[in-house]
Sequence to fold (126 residues):
Amino acid sequence: MANALQVLVKSRLEQQGWSYGDVARRGGIPRSTVHHLATVANVARMPQQATLEGLARGLDVPLDAVRRAAAEACGIHLYFEDPADTASDPEISTLIASVQRLSDADRRHVTALVESLLGSTPGGPG
Fold:
């Protein structure tokens, strides 16, 4: 069964009559990257932001559509409170969605790390 990113890429190729090379040239990314993302069954990790941007340009679709499809292909579900803010910081959305996949103990470690980085104490003023 195809993952969401495969479906997006292959449907755009079919709709537009493009090849992997066409998408790569339009997006400024390697052909091998386009081919890999279009054919790999399980995407091991979220592609880099530059790759997502290039793929969006190459496919002529919104970046948000590519980001969501890539995240879903990785098993990450992105949630946005305000759809207008989706392009403002994709790392925040990915981090929030990824934390939900951690164990309770790992979430406590992440919380402690974030509080340490922010210089705050649990329950105290930031």
